[in-house]
Amino acid sequence: MRGEHEVVITGLGVLSPIGLSLPELLASLLENRSGIAQWTSPLLARSLPAGLIPRDFTSEFTRTELPYLDRCSQLALLAARQAIDDAGIESFRHFGPRAGLYFGSVGGGVMTEHEWVRRFYVERAQTARPTTIMASMLNAAPAQISIRHQVLGPVMTHSSACTSSGAAIGDAMRAIRDGYLDIALAGGAEASLTPTFVGLWGGLRALAEPHPEDVARSCRPFSRDRSGLVLSEGAALLVLERRDLAEARGARVYGTLRGYGVASDGHHIGSPSRSGQVAALRAALDDARIGANEIAYVNAHATATAGGDPIEASALEEVLGAAPVSSTKAIHGHLLGAASALELMITTMAVHWRFLPATAFLEDADPACPLNHVGIRPRLDVEVPHALSLSAGFGGTNVALIVSATSAQLTARGPGGP
Amino acid sequence: MNNSLSQTVFRLLSERLENPPEDLALDTRLRDVGLDSILFLDLLIDVEEELGHKIPDLKMPADPCIRDVVAMIQRNMESLP
Prior knowledge:
The complex is a heterodimer.
Chain A: E1 7-15, H1 22-31, E2 36-39, E3 48-51, H2 71-87, E4 99-104, H3 110-122, H4 132-136, H5 140-149, E5 155-158, H6 164-177, E6 183-190, H7 195-202, E7 234-242, H8 243-248, E8 255-264, H9 274-288, E9 297-299, H10 308-320, E10 324-326, H11 329-332, H12 339-353, E11 355-356, E12 372-373, E13 379-380, E14 386-392, E15 397-404, H13 407-412
Parallel strand pairs in A: 4-5, 4-6, 9-10, 9-14, 10-12
Antiparallel strand pairs in A: 1-7, 1-8, 2-3, 6-7, 8-15, 11-13, 14-15
Helix pairs in contact in A: 2-5, 6-12, 9-10
Chain B: H1 3-16, H2 37-51, H3 66-78
Helix pairs in contact in B: 1-2, 1-3
């Protein structure tokens, strides 16, 4: 039985290859600015495109904090700080156990863990530093956020591959809607661009080749000449609140998180299935209590692999018909555990700032992906009453989330785009 | 108290704290400079490497200060066969 509290989005925090803040992310989406660059390692012969954040964040933390903070936790903490500031929250302490944190990641503290493995095998070290386990565990980042910002209710870590942060957001929404929580931080982080992790993915032969003329164009979802996915790093955290409580404190609202659908393929560990995606999409629409024809924008999962994109296109077409679709992965790549959160954030921005993000570089759409593509340029000044973000993960978990404009947002709209 | 050992502890501590060495004194409590029990274990790895001795007996008073750390290390060194 579904609860009845409405859940609104009141804070957004992001560190991504296309922006280290919400205004930077918005500008990149409007200008189609790609964050994909060349990635090299002296340990790998192959040079690859990747969604890098070309900045070291260690100066943001003290010397006694840093041994506990893998880059994944650093990104998560900084994005969480942004989201909390954006929402105008000082601390979660006064919410007690009615504030929660739902976090998704694939690798967690991968860099720290792999460095320990290197020391074990190469240096023959017998024990790790005592902080290594604290920095590398999958729930390190949410634990650090909860300690710093006094989130005293459930602090949960989801890991369902590329749907990790989407499922985290969906479950946070349910906890608020069902009356268990008043407020939650939800999202994900990933910082796994190590030669070992990239080599791990290399075994699948699913990684994109660098574009011969411009590496920034290497990720081409739905394109006929797509060559695979582009690994990225980053963090995206959202503040979710019970609508009546957010309104009572005068919070600015980006949109209503209205629908969550999750369904699994039960098919294959590494190959997606249309039926699971269809089921997730239908579940999200049922949950939001809206019709498929009301969806004005879809942010697709679309990793730009040969096999994945047509299956997703078929699922989207079956459930959502001619709804405008884009994949912003073309400019930010695949953030793995943070992908779903970043893409839901972009979907929320589309609702709030009334535009449809583009699929950059989609000059030649694959006929096997027959969708109503937004196209290579964003469409501005478009009313987006309801928008959907779909994610699909290895293992077969699929997550669809629906964001809607509030009635206040729709009535307050004047002319002009974002 | 072994002055050379004290200087080693001060140096290794200041490398991992925000505080410059001159801020540290024998009476400085570890918690006041942000050194929790896990970071303390991390410090001991460096101390063991520097001195070339294992430190198996970690008994110290509650809420220890740097003087207690130096005394604990010294006690371990003196008990070596």
